[in-house]
Specification:
19 strands; single chain; alpha+beta; five-stranded antiparallel sheet; Nuclear Transport Factor 2, Chain: A; nine-stranded antiparallel sheet; binds zinc ion
């Protein structure tokens, strides 16, 4: 129920309203006895005379113009910084009781507590200054509607627009950096990052890319009412890295699988730093100069700016988080029984000994502490205590897709593979 704080005025009183306002003017212009002489009962009203009305004047609409507006109309309110429903309702001329009633009009109304600056609300108030209806457009597809029915009871609903996804594709070849190649092909920043994340367990985007690597991506474009509203998911992708082909197919569980149905998600990320922090251009020579120089000491070095976040390559437990004059600030992580990863020269560590860490969790920040000339991450990968090259070492096989989903997945995968092939043919034809 909306509590009605304003005494409901039937429509005809509107006419009297302006008379009442005029009466005040008359009071000011004429001596009071003249005015009081004209007072009378409804039976002896005189045409052309002004009569006082027993109405709460402070409840009248703010301007005469508003009072004369015939019918009712929606008004749009834009949420300002620091706004809440109470402030907006106040601007709309509604009462705290209305705020209470509307914000308690069912579970969906809780949305109104999370309004963001720039959001828009449409509010409908009837000619008697009663709350009638509210529409809050909280996302591009969803609107919260709260309306008072004829009895004043509030009815809440959410209006959901249908998103229509159409497939689109993009492909490109790496010349000097993956980022540049992605941009040149027309991918958004978000898509470039997504693609690197999809293949982040197989490919070290920071150090392993070479000129000539290429990618081929099918993704969704989303439309509402025929209008483009943004990119959706990458649904299939192929990345050829140094001649090796990696393929990812998205299944409706939101995960990516190889065309045979093995998850791309693995125990270890190929690189514990995001490629976007590594210098945007790489040396097109076959051997990375830094990699070559640092090879003798059993690790891989990622040159990056001081402060670049470094993440745990896999789930595990921190077995060392300390400082010495060789390693600087360093962190060692134990993964299961066989594997240990080591991270050296941090400017700052973000985890303590004994902490459980998740794959991708930030454990420290690139620095040049200890025996390091320039800021870089020195990364080591050990299997049963022996240093191994994380790029070539045999790692546990990834999980296969649920057996009950496999047949359906394989059908989806087959379609996408055909489309990837088709895209390649189109690309060749255009060149
Ligand atoms: Zn090193």
């Amino acid at each position: 129920m909306v509590r009605k704080t304003i005494k409901k005025l039937p429509r005809p009183h509107k006419v009297l309203l302006s008379s009442a306002l005029s009466f005040l003017v008359v009071l000011m212009l004429f001596p009071s006895d003249q005015v009081s002489a004209s007072k009378g009962t409804a039976n002896d009203l005189i045409v052309g005379q002004y009569y006082p009305l027993d109405l709460p004047l402070d409840r009248f609409p703010h301007t005469e113009h508003e009072a004369e507006v015939d019918g009712i109309e929606w008004k749009t309110y834009v949420v300002r910084s620091g706004d809440n429903l109470a402030k907006i309702f106040d601007r709309a001329g509604l009462s705290p009781q209305d705020v209470y009633a509307v914000s308690h009009a069912g579970k969906a109304a809780k949305r109104l507590l999370k309004m963001m600056p720039g959001d828009e609300l449409d509010i409908l108030i009837d000619e008697d200054q009663q709350f009638k209806s509210l529409s809050y457009y909280y996302s591009s597809t969803e609107t919260l509607n709260i309306s008072a029915d004829d009895n004043g009871k509030l009815v809440t609903s959410i209006n959901q627009k249908q998103i229509e996804s159409r497939l689109n594709y993009v492909n490109g070849t790496v010349e000097n950096s993956f980022w540049n190649a992605g941009k040149k092909s027309g991918m958004s920043d978000q898509q470039i990052m997504s693609l690197a994340n999809i293949f982040g367990w197989d490919i070290d985007f920071a150090l392993e890319l070479r000129a000539g690597d290429h990618f081929n991506v099918i993704y969704e474009d989303n439309f509402i009412d025929g209008e483009f509203v943004g990119e959706g998911n990458i649904v299939a992708a192929e990345f050829v890295n140094q001649g090796e082909v990696f393929t990812a197919i998205r299944y409706d569980d939101g995960n990516y699988y190889t065309p045979e149905g093995r998850s791309l998600r693995k125990s270890f990320l190929r690189a514990p730093v995001n490629f976007k922090y590594i210098s945007s251009k790489f040396n097109p020579n076959r051997f990375h100069p830094i990699q070559k120089r640092y090879k003798p000491h059993n690790g891989i070095d990622y040159r990056a700016n001081k402060g670049t976040p470094v993440v745990a390559a896999g789930d595990g437990k921190v077995i060392k988080s300390s400082y010495n004059r060789f390693n600087g600030h360093y962190v060692f992580i134990q993964h299961g029984e066989k594997y240990v990863t080591k991270y050296l020269h941090f400017t700052k560590r973000a985890v303590k000994v004994g902490a459980k860490v998740k794959q991708g969790q930030v454990i420290g920040y690139v620095g040049a502490t200890g025996m390091a000339e320039a800021p870089h991450l020195h990364y080591e990968f050990l299997v049963n205590g022996v240093h191994r090259n994380p790029r070539t070492v045999k790692l546990p096989k990834a999980q296969p897709i649920d057996s009950n989903k496999k047949q359906q997945f394989l059908q989806v995968a087959e379609q996408y593979l055909a489309q990837l092939e088709n895209n390649k043919r189109i690309m060749l034809a255009m060149n």
